Amino acid sequence: MRGAQIHCPQCVAFLGMCRLSIGRVVACRRMLVATGATCLRDTVAMAPHPVPVPLIVAITARALFDLEHSHSLFESEGIQAYADHQRLREDDVLEPGIAFPLVRKLLALNDNAPPDAPHVEVILLSRNSSDTGLGIFNSIHHHGLAITRATFTSGAPTWPYIKPFGAQLFLSANADSVRGALEHGVAAATILPAKAPQQRSRQLRIAFDGDAVIFGDEGERMSRQDGLEAFTRHERERAREPLSGGPFKGFLDALHRLQAAFPAGEAAPIRTALVTARSAPAHERVIRTLREWEVRLDEALFLGGRAKGPFLEAFGADIFFDDSLHNIDSARQHVAAGHVPHGVANS
Ligand SMILES: [Mg+2]
Fold it and tell me: What is the CATH code of the structural domain delimited by 204-346?
């Protein structure tokens, strides 16, 4: 009997799994002690809960802070002038850059998060030396950002460190780094450095293009090669055939898992949108693919070629990802935008 799990005569399942009154629970506990049996409920309660996979975002210093003055010094006068300037100003607080509001909102998700919510971590990847990077850490501390992990590579590429950190998203001002990350299967986008945009809400709002971002670029390829009419016919005929996954599918999955741990509705801390140039009837394949993947996007905008910028402003995107530079140019006038150099539009 000792160590066994036996059917309990008092409760509905196994010994000790009492969905009963206190008195009967006590009786059951006495029986457990007397018999030395274990209770399945206790076993379940003691089993270690699987630790949710964290959401990890890697970001460069130029995306996080406004470093454009020192960067132009580097471009015009070289590394030594840049290093001297950085050391001289290392106690100055850096102004927030283009991705600062996004990072602040991501890290704020850890405050009061439900216990089963994945932890959010932001990693700093910098081509500075650790010596010149001291000012960047000072500013991180000043702004109260909980960023503790960083690499300083003294000019060497930073992207090889993305995978060991387990990051699902990489944001950088350097297009070569972004291409390196994408080629190694990490969602990555180039963001043009600028001062931080105005924050309009506490909710984190992320918008994605569909083809060649969330999905593969087969649709984009088809419409370029054979025209819009052939593309529309092709998509209508294959409406029930799921699209392939694009470079941002993994990040969208991770974001969805995080979102699912929080309450839904108006109070939800994250809101997502698909903002695509597709329109009916090419919408159906998109909707069915997301259903197949069991990923929910809160809003879906089928714009049929209308400029995306005003719609992204109306959505209030903290960041928008698109593979088309034409769409990025429109988006950038309204919100922070990350170019995804992937697929036929970038080959
Ligand atoms: Mg696209």
Answer: 3.40.50.1000
State whether CATH 3.40.50.10800 applies to domain 55-191.
Answer: no
Å from CA of 189 to ligand 1 middle: 13
Query: What CA dihedral angle connects 146, 151, 156 and 160, to 10 degrees?
Result: -90
| Catalytic residue from among 92, 116, 176, 209 | 209
CA of 216 to the centre of ligand 1 (A): 9
**Strands of 150-152's sheet in order across:** 150-152, 120-126, 55-60, 169-172, 187-191, 337-339, 319-322, 204-208, 270-276, 299-302
Residue 209 a catalytic site member? yes
Tell me the average pLDDT of the chain: 87
337 CA to centre of ligand 1 in angstroms: 13
Q: Which pLDDT belongs to residue 197?
A: 79
Token duo for residue 60: 């460069």
Q: How far apart are CA 124 and CA 172, in angstroms?
A: 10
Output the six-digit token pair for 97. 């850059």
Q: Which residue has the tokens 């105005």?
A: 198
Q: What is the pLDDT of residues 223-239, one digit of tens each?
A: 899 999 999 999 999 99
154's tokens: 């003294």
Q: d(Cα 168, Cα 206) in Å, to the nearest integer?
A: 15
Listed in sequence order, the residues at least 6 apart from 65 whose beta carbon sits closer than 8 Å to its beta carbon are 94, 95, 96, 97, 100, 136, 139
